[in-house]
Amino acid sequence: MGGALAEVFLEEFYHREAFGIITTHYANLKILANELPCAQNANMLFDEKSLEPLYKLVLGQAGSSFTFEVAQKNGIPYGLINRAKKKIEVGKVRFDKTIATLQKERSKMEKTSQNLKEEESKVREESKKMETINAKIKQKLESYQELYDSNQRLIYMGQKIEDIAEKYFNSKNKKDLIGEFLKIVEVENSKRKKATVKEVQQKQAIQKEIVKEVTVKVDAIRQEKKEKKRIVIPPEKPKPILKVGDRVRMIEGKAIGTIDKIEKTKAIVNYGVFTSTVNISQLEYVQP
Prior knowledge:
288 residues, alpha+beta, five-stranded antiparallel β-sheet, 7 strands
């Protein structure tokens, strides 16, 4: 790089020393920034299709001014743009085009990365929701299982008491009766765990809530079954027995005639202009 260009760069640098930032469209200054230890290139990302800024700074890469792209977007004729390109050094045009391409790719990658982050965030939220739902379902299943086991135990004990009562009914032996009852009580007590009054109350409250919830659902099922039983299909009205002289027509037919004669399952129907022999099952009665 020439000394004059370095002087321009340093003059611009010291002019903005308070901020330490230089904004430029000069390609030579962008190249020079890579050679100086005290300088670093940077650019602002943008939407590669609309050329709208994304307001995000990227360090380490020079940016493009997108002179020709902006001109084309604003309706400048292609001929005039091509003439302007010819007046600029080929190397500078290629350099700026390369920067523009890299900047577009970086912007595209940035948008893709942002979309992926958003999708990842949504997946995390959905995953948390599913975990919460699964935990609630698991808790309910455990509660229902405890209620089921408790009821099964009571049914078993009821059956045992029924057996003991039947034995006592036949033998009238009170000693055996008391012994059997004591066995049941001892077995049940061996399964019990000592709990505080507060723990017992909490367990009873939880069980009461579960029973209430199950009762509501069972009542709804019973009501639905009752409603289904109430739906009664009305019986079909019996077809009138046809006889001679009745006005009739073919089922889904329009022509109406009168029955002149009935022979077993056949009827001779007089339509005025002609008569026809028809199966009685194919006729329907017409009100006079």
